[in-house]
Amino acid sequence: MKIILNIWRQQNATSAGRMVRYEVPNANEHMSFLEMLDVLNEELTRKGEDPVTFEHDCREGICGCCGFMIDGVPHGPQRGTTVCQLHMRHFHDGDELWLEPFRAKAFPVIKDLMVDRSSFDRIIASGGFISVNTGSAPDGNALPVIKKCSDMAMDAAACIGCGACVASCPNASASLFVSAKISHLGQLPQGQVERDRRAMRMVLKMTDEGFGYCTNTGECEAVCPKGITIENIARMHRDYIKASATFREETSGGGAG
Ligand code: SF4
Ligand code: FES
């Protein structure tokens, strides 16, 4: 099958970008979308041209590395699917597609379709963890977890940090991502000690990093490849409001003496 691609080419974050038209005459329906781009890149390399840069790692829908816009939709037209798991059988011979990077101030373009999502890492580092004593692993049954809570925690833990929610949001909000991380740990007994601090720090860090506010448009939920729901955002707001009233950061130093 033949696919026509209009791909955003941009050398780095500060240079101007532009759409460039390519043809892939020898794609087939069994290829993943990224394999189809591999074929294009082999051809570009063979001709001495600069291959298209895009990010990928597992190609199994679990690492969260891949992701760009296909015809204005993060990860493309197949719901609940990362672009590495999207297959060419969902397209038709002669289709013309437009590929662009995720666009958000907090995701600067590294090159072509690849963006820098290290802002997500900094949000996680600000509070998306639990502190436990080192030593041997505790017995699995020693800490009972209510079934409903464990289900909600597991659902939230499915977030792979791909950033599609940010790219789809008209405010470039990272609320779905951050709320998934806050919900995941906040449902579990191990996450209770730092629950207030986590909500405060991660929400504030999201704003610091340049992400916008959530206005409940729901675009994020519609494009999330892992089915993260906006219920998590409601839980995040509840935790944040509670923490705002009760939590105070510890200050160092002290004593009158
Ligand atoms: S919430 Fe969904 S879209 Fe957002 S980063 Fe996580 S997996 Fe990706
Ligand atoms: S490359 Fe890992 S999720 Fe797509």
UniProtKB/TrEMBL annotation:
Signal peptide per UniProt: none
UniProt keyword Iron present: yes
EC number assigned by the record: 1.3.5.1
Name assigned to this protein: succinate dehydrogenase
GO MF terms held by the record: 2 iron, 2 sulfur cluster binding; 3 iron, 4 sulfur cluster binding; 4 iron, 4 sulfur cluster binding; electron transfer activity; metal ion binding; succinate dehydrogenase (quinone) activity
Organism: Paludibaculum fermentans
GO biological process assignments: respiratory electron transport chain; tricarboxylic acid cycle
PROSITE patterns: 4FE4S_FER_1, 4FE4S_FER_2
Residue span, 4Fe-4S ferredoxin-type domain: 150-179
Tree of life domain: Bacteria
SUPFAM superfamilies xref list: 2Fe-2S ferredoxin-like (SSF54292), alpha-helical ferredoxin (SSF46548)
Transmembrane regions: none
Keywords: 2Fe-2S, 3Fe-4S, 4Fe-4S, Iron, Iron-sulfur, Metal-binding, Oxidoreductase, Tricarboxylic acid cycle
Family (UniProt): Belongs to the succinate dehydrogenase/fumarate reductase iron-sulfur protein family.
Names of the cofactor(s): [3Fe-4S] cluster; [4Fe-4S] cluster; [2Fe-2S] cluster
Classification of source organism: Bacteria, Pseudomonadati, Acidobacteriota, Terriglobia, Bryobacterales
PANTHER family: SUCCINATE DEHYDROGENASE, SUCCINATE DEHYDROGENASE IRON-SULFUR PROTEIN
